[in-house]
Amino acid sequence: MTDEKEQYSDEPSRVRQLVSEFLSGQSETDLEVDGLDVRLTLGADAKDDCAVYDIAAPLTLVVGSDYIRGPRFILHEMGLLSDFDIGYYLVAANVSDIAAMGATPIGVLSVVRYPHELNDADFRQVMAGIHQACTDSGTMNVGGDIGNAERLILSGTALGVCRPGKVLRRSGARPGDLLCVTGPCGLLGAAVAYFPKRDTFPTTLPADAEHRLLHSWKRPRARVAEGRLLARKPYATACQDTSDGLKATIEQIMQASGVGVRVTENNVPVDSAVHMVAELMQVEPLALAMSASSDFQLAFTVAPEDAPSCREEFAAQGLDFIVIGEVTDGDTAELVSDSVSRPLPGVAWKHQKTDISLLAAESPGTQR
Amino acid sequence: MTDEKEQYSDEPSRVRQLVSEFLSGQSETDLEVDGLDVRLTLGADAKDDCAVYDIAAPLTLVVGSDYIRGPRFILHEMGLLSDFDIGYYLVAANVSDIAAMGATPIGVLSVVRYPHELNDADFRQVMAGIHQACTDSGTMNVGGDIGNAERLILSGTALGVCRPGKVLRRSGARPGDLLCVTGPCGLLGAAVAYFPKRDTFPTTLPADAEHRLLHSWKRPRARVAEGRLLARKPYATACQDTSDGLKATIEQIMQASGVGVRVTENNVPVDSAVHMVAELMQVEPLALAMSASSDFQLAFTVAPEDAPSCREEFAAQGLDFIVIGEVTDGDTAELVSDSVSRPLPGVAWKHQKTDISLLAAESPGTQR
């Protein structure tokens, strides 16, 4: 057999020979989704114009698309993330939006366009990462678009379903609700701040901290189980994933709900690796943790009286969340610490204008 | 007001100020789809993580994704297609896959990533083209991903629904069925073959022929009405859009259905502009018409006894189709002309290896 590293098959061959193992057996599958009657009638293995679902019961369908940055995916360019890893990340990013709505994924479509230089083995790795992330999220890669382009381009769409009307919006937060997050934020942003400048810092991080930063990119987990629990009662009055960073997420929930928030500084979970990167950068750890960072925790609000039973349901599945503040009837986001109040630190993500280096400029220098 | 040609707003501003007029009033819309009970609960105007549909009745859902070539979109690079035009094309390409399944579109998600050089006015034109094409297809741009990238990247996803089990596959063609197409193919491929080399040909085409070639790219029409009619009885035993060119489409239907086809040379509709380009290229017109050309006719098969009433239903809506051959129990595609038979001419689209210039090499030189 010829070495795949030296092979550059055309698109029909890649679909037929390299990808088919990841796509086989999809069609005519009954999907087990919360008792909802959904059947994948034609999957990617059917090689038709579209994927086809047969839906028997009333339900709510959610769908979203996310592009992920190819060449600006700097850790991939540096060789720290593999082709498998970025395929995996593509799916996690798309499924995260489904999780944020409290829905269960029923399929992912992937757009994988590649330059001539991408050989069969590397192409196969991208598709293997996509496949693995779908499997880990309990879903399938049901279609998309494979072909060439000037450079690697990865985009996706995820579909999910939930019981009728049980969808979690960003707009339902009410004054008095608790503001919560499913885990520490900012690891992915800290990784991007650290690795490209690694050699310019006076010291490097311990191996386990570096591993944790990289792992956050390699195997991100969309919070599907958490989202489903939050939609069950529903517990969450508002919910969003933190893929724009925690500060931007909080601001968007505030804006959609017409409320303010008061965040308790000491309650915001900051991973020790983020602490260490902030120290090297000489910025405030909390600011780094809340700034642009495309990780996939869920930020949500819950009525105080519902929080205990919500936590019990989480615990029964080995899950947890952290209360980081409360919703106010104002229109600002404030951070309180030892009865001193100030605006939320960090730089909210705005695409063109976001540069994590702005952190240094805005940081008050109050490192912890 | 500042000139948008000189403005480069960040992504939240673009979404808020430039795009909102195209997205307003979507949420809480009952979609009228063949009596199926589908409601767009959260559209793009809701600015949540996903678009949300509430589905009450049993139905079949179809979904597909198509990326369109940004910088290799050569007619756009040459200034012959505007930013509006490529936004329009993106939607037509995606809705065409829905039409090919016999479904009615219920929404399009668009991924629009742009370089820093794309000013607000040009960005707005891309979104306006997307909006117009959605409107012309009877649907809405319900979400997607807007943001920056190294260069313009356009990708999309379309969703559609049809009555349960009424979906049109590629796999149902049976020997004896008629092979049909909804209109002439190859205009888009001919345009790409002609304009970049326009100055190297001994003559140029008449203005009306040039207009027709360009218009095929500027305002492609996804054959939604035709697909819906073909799914009604259903009339079509197999159906696919011709976005890979007619030859590739026929080969894919053959492969999916396990049949052969016999195409009658004189019945294949060839636009006079395609004829003229083929003459300039010194290739066979039929070969050019059947080769890689990303247009959006539907190729389908229908039982001979169903063809008359199918044609009546088409005519009642001002539509038509052309019978170009028949399905055989063989496994080859042959072209018959005056009782002489030969393989189908043209170069089927295969991404990496497709180059329309191959036509010159494979053409038997039998120009008409």
Report the oligomer.
Answer: homodimer
Radius of gyration of chain A: 21 Å
Give start-end ranges of low-pLDDT stretches of chain A.
352-357, 360-368
CATH superfamily of the largest domain in chain A: PurM-like C-terminal domain
Strand content of chain A: 25-35%
Q: Tell me about the biggest sheet of chain A?
A: 7 strands, mixed
Helix content of chain A: 25-40%
The CATH architecture classification of the largest domain in chain A is Alpha-Beta Complex
Name of the CATH class of the largest domain in chain A: Alpha Beta
Strand order of the largest sheet of chain A: 9-11-8-12-10-13-14
Helix tally of chain A?
13
Most residues in contact: chain pair: A-B, 72 and 72 residues
Q: Given the C-alpha coordinates, what overall shape of chain A results?
A: flat
SSE series of chain A? HHEEEEHHEHEEEHHHEHEHHEHEEEH
User: End-to-end span of chain A in angstroms?
Assistant: 57 Å
Can you count the beta strands of chain A? 14
